Amino acid sequence: MFIPPDECVERHIRDTLTRLQHADSNELLAMATDGWRAVADTGMLARDFDDELLLGVHGCGYDFFEAHWEPLYDALGYQWHLK
Fold first, then answer.
1. Is the torsion defined by CA of 10, 14, 16, 20 positive or negative?
2. pLDDT, block means (10 residues), the chain with 83 residues
3. Is residue 2 part of a domain?
4. Which is nearest to 10 in space by CA: 82, 57, 59, 76?
5. SS3 label, residue 29
6. How far apart are CA 77 and CA 26, in angstroms?
7. Which residue range(s) make up the domain with 48?
8. How many angstroms separate the Cα of 43 from the Cα of each of 3, 50, 82?
């Protein structure tokens, strides 16, 4: 689980939130009902908890940075690598 580092990043992430797709499985339906939402097309999930936006994933055993952080960076439109 992760918490965005500041309000600006949190606001940008919130702008990308959508309903969970494929919520036909019992597990994903339960997560959607509990308030989890998809973060763009990153494979990450987000949920409000105690006035914080929690970020997490539903899985393990792969390159987390490549599978989720890089797509989040792209979804937020960041271009820090160009500087």
1. positive
2. 94 95 76 93 93 88 85 90 76
3. no
4. 76
5. helix
6. 33
7. 7-82
8. 16, 23, 25
